Amino acid sequence: MAQRTRADALSRERIVEAAVELLDADGERGLTFRTLTERLATGPGAIYWHVPNKGELLAAATASVIGDALTVAATGSPWEEIRALALGLFDAVERHPWLSPQLAVQLSHSPWGSVTPRIFESIGRRVSALGVPEATWFTATSALAHYVFGAAGQNAANARALQVGGADRAEFLRDAANAWEELDPAEFRFLKAIAGQVREHDDREQFLTGIDLILTGIAAQERP
Amino acid sequence: MAQRTRADALSRERIVEAAVELLDADGERGLTFRTLTERLATGPGAIYWHVPNKGELLAAATASVIGDALTVAATGSPWEEIRALALGLFDAVERHPWLSPQLAVQLSHSPWGSVTPRIFESIGRRVSALGVPEATWFTATSALAHYVFGAAGQNAANARALQVGGADRAEFLRDAANAWEELDPAEFRFLKAIAGQVREHDDREQFLTGIDLILTGIAAQERP
DNA sequence: ACCTGAACACCGTTCAAGT
DNA sequence: ACCTGAACACCGTTCAAGT
Q: What CATH code would you report for B73-219?
């Protein structure tokens, strides 16, 4: 085939966009240089001209999706904005479940790359507007950020299990709760005790309650 | 070579043990069936007789390491035991940085496999002993567990960056803080503001302060 | 400057064959 | 029952060659 016309020219953005689509459709195993070259009707060499390697491609896909989630309408109290921001990230991980392992991988390759600072900045600005002592800002922001990723990761895992299993949420929780009620009480008496709560809880609501919990702790903290 | 003698016979445990050693030494890319067969002086077929595939091997390695971290001496108030438990997990991820992406992967493949329930049980028992209303147990335990993994993951990332870069901690934080002070204030005024705190903070101490923050929020929560 | 496509090294997994 | 080791399909990456 001859050189591409201007209209279908490759670019880093088009490649990243296609990568996100493949990841959304089939998870991390859905993105290979074979599937990518097929979708973009090109060869591997063309992609390598725009992107140095697969790791960078995954990093760019992650940054792109997280960046969208961080643009939150700034209307409300800092407390409310933190809730909105956290919920935006939570939902982004639910829409793109591959984000969960991927964020951990990105972090472990370059902890302060491009994603973490932007998330810290977004959350931290609102924390600093809460009126708590400046000496607590960093720790408070860290606590919120860590909680958000932990919770979002677990939820993405549940979402994927639902998708694979083909069951609906209520059914999934009912089965899990029933299984827990059968557990050996010597080893798992706590899980048995809360099986009922698991059956009835709502993930997003519980997630936000966790945010409120941490914000309450932050507000209650004395000058260290 | 003839069949192995009883002394050097393969077993699932020996394979998992070797896998953990390879992972500790070189991260996830250090564990391949080639390196594993070489270390165990055998062929791939032998390993596949004991372990169904690489995913299960990684899951077993994860469960093994997490299991060790969960066996905590039960002496102290519930609050203190939760701190000890959390710190044990935090340190385990620091010693085995591959745990961080791996936990996310395990979670997304089977969210309530074997690792998550055991962690929930360990934390939850102490939460239920705090004296807070039973209706809050599940949410409180979730918040703690999610925070622990998020924080441990970020810390593992930092630890690995240190290992790769060859720098020491103080130098690493100084460089990061200096870089943040140079950032564009329009985009990153919060990061600039806390650069000083970043330079001076201690990871483990900050992690425990986060635990206290959440526990304070839990204790302050009213009956929902 | 941008793209093509064959080729390479490496990986997880299988399986017929041995003891 | 347990292990061997060659073979297979697939993957990320390179690179000489084209326009």
A: 1.10.357.10
On the CB side of A62, CA atoms within 13 Å amount to 24
Q: What are phi and psi for residue A182, nearest 5 degrees?
A: -90, -5
* Nucleotide closest to B2 measured between CA and C1': C19
Summarize the confidence of residues B158-178 as an average pLDDT. Answer: 79
pLDDT, tens digit (0-9, with 9 covering 90-100), for B70-124: 987 678 999 999 999 999 999 999 999 999 888 888 877 777 778 888 999 999 9
Residue A204 contacts B, CB cutoff 8 Å: no
Separation of B130 CA and C5 C1' (Å): 66
- Average pLDDT of the residues of chain A: 90
HSE-up (13 A, CA, CB side) for residue A122: 27
Contact B111, A101 (CB under 8 A): no
Q: What is the mean pLDDT of residues A158-180?
A: 80
Q: Place B1 in a pLDDT band, splitting at 50, 70 and 90.
A: very low
Query: Domain map of chain B by residue range?
Result: 1-52, 73-219
Chain B interface disruption, residue of A81, A148, A194, A197, most B CBs within 10 A? A194
What is the structure's pLDDT at B29?
Answer: 93
| DSSP assignments along A17-33, one per residue | HHHHHHHHHH-GGG--H
Q: How far B23 CA sits from the closest chain A CA (Å)?
A: 14
Q: Are A39 and A22 in contact (CB under 8 A)?
A: yes
Q: What is d(CA B188, CA B180) in angstroms, rounded to the nearest whole number?
A: 8
**For A1-52, which CATH class?**
mainly alpha
